[in-house]
TrEMBL record:
It comes from Brevibacterium iodinum ATCC 49514. The lineage of its organism: Bacteria, Bacillati, Actinomycetota, Actinomycetes, Micrococcales. The chain crosses the membrane at residues 6-24, 36-54, 74-96, 108-129, 135-155, 167-186, 198-220. InterPro entries: Lgt. One of its GO terms (molecular function) is phosphatidylglycerol-prolipoprotein diacylglyceryl transferase activity. This is Prolipoprotein diacylglyceryltransferase. One of its GO terms (biological process) is lipoprotein biosynthetic process. Keywords: Cell membrane, Lipoprotein, Membrane, Transferase, Transmembrane, Transmembrane helix.
Length: 344
């Protein structure tokens, strides 16, 4: 069975919805929208390759058997795609990228979760247009995914979920929904062609695994983390340092979670100086000299980070960074007043 044009259109629509919702959630957590472009450029091709590899591993005789043709494995347009293969390889590539760029993975997963389940809505209709699902199943799955998306957004705000807890809740809702949908598909041609494992379809087992994994993750994370997660970048993040150098970001959202570290060690809560804005030094909890030392140290880190880049985006951002600043964001003047000026 090959992919129809309607399948392609709704699949692209699902990807667009997922990116749109992820961008909203990521910016709400303090992230920059430019991070999503880099993640999409790396994660989307990896997900496509992973989905195809997962399909090839599930049906190797079709392509590599006695009557198979290995060249058909490259014919993606003929159909054959694994959701779990796309998820595993896509997440693996995103994890590698976040490690390189200094982005925290768990806040990113929390931002992706509502968009991911929203993209499933368009994905269900793409399967219906391709003749893989019944209309009743598609409508039920779409309604479930829409409700789950709203639940993720509301619960994450009300309970201030973080540390991957929103993504864990997504796994629970997704797994429970897949189990209910597989129950509705009993007796249909798709259910008869499904592979069985211990008397149950393979999709049911994967849904149960996702449900248990998400439930365990959510419980353990809620017990370990009592405070709200702050900051979506690692300390000294490459992507954040490059933006700060161009005046597009501050260090405040990259500050370490000192409250959580102090609570874990039993030490008193130390004070933190805000050095992102020189005008705020008068109200800082440390002397100005200490703040100057911290700023000089951070500027040295920025100089060391200049050699790092990320392919096309690194070249573009490097070219933009050498353009003179004409927006009036000049370097801040010194706070030491001229005695002659102060006497006037």
């Amino acid at each position: 069975m090959s992919f129809s044009p309607a399948w392609v259109v709704f699949t692209v629509l699902g990807i667009g919805l997922a990116l749109w919702m992820t961008g909203i959630q990521w910016r709400a957590r303090g992230g920059h929208k430019g991070d999503l472009w880099a993640i999409t450029v790396v994660g989307l091709p990896a997900a496509i390759i992973g989905g195809r590899l997962g399909h090839l591993l599930s049906a190797p005789d079709t392509y590599f058997g006695p009557d198979g043709s290995p060249l058909r494995a490259l014919a993606v347009w003929d159909g054959g795609f694994s959701f779990w293969g796309a998820t595993i390889l896509g997440l693996l590539s995103v994890w590698v990228l976040t490690r390189i760029q200094g982005i925290r993975l768990r806040p990113l997963l929390d931002s992706v979760a509502p968009g991911l389940i929203l993209g499933h809505v368009a994905g269900a209709f793409s399967d219906w247009f391709d003749g893989r699902l019944e209309l009743v199943t598609v409508l039920t799955e779409s309604a479930w995914n829409l409700i789950a998306c709203v639940v993720l957004i509301i619960v994450s705000k009300r309970l201030r979920l973080g540390y991957g807890q929103v993504f864990a809740l997504y796994l629970c809702l997704f797994g429970l929904g897949r189990i209910l949908l597989e129950a509705l598909r009993i007796g249909t041609p798709a259910a008869e062609d499904a592979r069985l494992l211990l008397g149950l379809p393979f999709n049911v087992w994967t849904a149960i695994l996702a449900l248990l994994l998400g439930l365990g993750w959510l419980i353990v994370s809620r017990l370990r983390h009592r405070t709200y997660e702050t900051g979506v970048y690692m300390h000294g993040s490459r992507t954040l340092l490059r933006r700060h150098r161009r005046g597009k970001h501050t260090f405040e959202i990259n500050a370490p979670n000192i409250a959580e570290a102090a609570a874990a060690s039993g030490a008193p809560l130390p004070s933190v100086a805000r050095v992102a804005d020189p005008d705020d030094r008068a109200s800082a909890d440390v002397p100005v000299a200490a703040a100057d030392d911290m700023e000089i140290e951070r500027e040295s880190d920025i100089d060391l980070s200049g050699r790092h880049s990320f392919g096309f985006f690194g070249a573009v951002t490097s070219a933009i960074s050498i353009v003179p600043d004409v927006r009036g964001n000049s370097a801040p003047a010194s706070h030491e007043e001229n005695p002659q000026t102060s006497n006037k």
